[in-house]
Fold this sequence. Notes:
The protein is of the alpha/beta class. It is built from ten helices and 15 strands. The protein folds into two domains: about 5-145 and about 300-335, Quinone Oxidoreductase, Chain A, domain 1 (Alpha-Beta Complex); about 155-280, Rossmann fold (3-Layer(aba) Sandwich). The strands form three sheets. Strands 3, 4, 5, 6, 7, 14 and 15 form a seven-stranded mixed sheet that branches. A six-stranded parallel sheet has the order 10-9-8-11-12-13, sandwiched between helices. A hairpin with a 2-residue loop joins β1 and β2 (about 15-20). α4 crosses α5 and α4 (about 150-160) crosses α9 (about 285-295).
Amino acid sequence: MSGVAVVLDAPGRHRLVRHEPREPGPGEALVRVHAVGICGSDREVYQGNRPAAYVRYPVTPGHEWSGTVDRVGDGVPAGLVGRKAVGEGFRNCQVCARCHAGETTLCTAGYAETGFTEPGAMAATLTLPARLLHPLPDDADLGAAALLEPAACVAAAALKADARPGERVAVVGTGTLGMLAVRFLAAASPAELLVVGVDRQRAPLAERFGATGFRTTDQPLPADFDVVVEAAGSPDAAGVAAGLLRRGGRLVLTGLPAPGGGGLDPADLVLRQLEVRTVFGAPPPAWAHAVRMFAAGLLDPLPLVTHELPLAEFPHAIDLVGSGDPGVGKVLLRP
Length: 335
């Protein structure tokens, strides 16, 4: 089961190497990778502008993936073999206070994540702790399932937003995270679900995912929403999102903008008594929520996929992701 793998030796330097599977040790599983998605953080690793504490070169990238369990190590249920699955990326310690509280993305043992500090899925196989796996139904579409990692991050945002039926909800951002946020928030039966973006071409897709309205950032925007999820990551997105809220509203931030944006005004947050919550990664409850929605047929991310390329076209895929072309959605690589 050899094949190839992408290795980033340093920013801007990649190579394709012969991949040799690493046999699973105790508590581990080896997965045959079916598809792996590329997101902005992968491009950061390639370009070298990801914070140094959150990447370790050389590395095989790939934290958004789907596959089939091929074999398992000692102590892992044999019934996992042959199962379609996705897996959490954060390699948490499981013994610190934050892990015991279920806040595994806040693990105090230090940051470790598949595709950033640990070998990722841009390879024929991936070996990881079996406890991180989330099995899927036998008839699951593994192409669509490759988007369950960003879906889990959005599920974390939806859980923190705690949108209730009948509330007025908005999403800022029309990329993969924004569209997935629309789908999760639509499931809460909001009275209104507005999407705010920069390109009206995304309006039909937003409506397909459950939006009831769409506005561009250069249009007048209301300021009376109960809940707003920011999923754009642009420098001014947090400010735009906060401006949509009523007094006492709830804001959930998921984007990681570059320094220098307008950001949030602390005085405005205090005077309007806004609640601000943030998401970085997805803890197990969010993963379980995303997988449950997917398995129940309530979440179909496949319409977000616009390109599927072989692993050898990694540089082209990275260029597509950073092109700014509104016709480029989620890009998948196939090992």
